[in-house]
Amino acid sequence: MSKKTKLPFSMMPASWGLKGKARARAEAEYYYEGVELEKQLAFIDCDTDHDKSIAELDVELKEGVIDEQQYDKKVATIRKEPWVEVKKLEVNPEDAKAGYMELDWNDEFVAMLQENGYTGESDESVVNKWFNDVCRTVLMQEIEDQDYGLQPQGDVIKVTNPDVTMEGPND
Fold first, then answer.
1. Phi-psi category of 89—alpha, beta or left, where left has phi over 0 and alpha has psi -120 to 50?
2. 109-134 residue pLDDT tens
3. 113 with 133: CB under 8 angstroms?
4. For 63-154, where are the E strands, in sequence order?
5. Contact 150/165 with Cβ under 8 angstroms?
6. Whole-model pTM?
């Protein structure tokens, strides 16, 4: 939100001796407040539009305008990096085998899959084919381990909740 000012910053005597980044900071503080001020201050140390975009996202994350998942996706997109994440996981309490996963991804992820041979009528079908291959690979590895009488390789799923303690087969 910008402030309502009557005089331009350059007309203020306090601005006359300022130069460079000190002037830019004082001017931002003169014209802006709140989240917009934080963004303008973050832009001062940025050299490229790429850096400005990420600095703006940093402020939006800090101020609660966006969440961590939105931040990660937008930063990856700005950097032109593939990104995918499990957005939601639902399990039927009456049948633990039934459920679904909702994935979120950026265009760079779909492009990376297409470069690796995945095709489909839509982005969703391309990602679905990839996800099916990942599941198939996990299943095939599990079957192969059983065929050779090997000990299971441990859990495929990584637990990232610090409140949950899991003991593996070797514990």
1. beta
2. 999 999 999 999 999 999 999 999 99
3. no
4. 84-92, 95-105
5. no
6. 0.68
